[in-house]
Amino acid sequence: MALWQARSTLLRSFRGLQCGQVRLISEGPLYEQRFINDKKLVNPNWAIDLIHEEPITIVDGKTAVSGGGPTGHPVEFLNLDQDKVVICPYSGEFFVRRGALKKLLERGAVYEKQGQYYKSRDITDEE
Fold it and tell me: Which residues form the Zinc finger CHCC-type domain (predicted)?
């Protein structure tokens, strides 16, 4: 579909609306044409599941440094004073203080697999 055709279709779909009415972008001819000839593809690998496959970085001090370099991730200093797994807000990397590891293992918030530690999906840090 050419750009001018898509624009005219979009404008036609909004002409009939009264002031104050809302039309969702998932309604109307543009969204319906998206999967006319092909089946909708859905990736089975959800980000929420993939993030738990990353091992936890064990830190000796009370501060973890994450980021920097050419990737655009700013340098973040993460506070590890509390006995919980800390997640970098940019990369999603997990950090934990070495002294808190034993408590987290006993509580079930962290588990060990092949010499690496991983965050449990079932137990949150707030418990």
Answer: 67-91
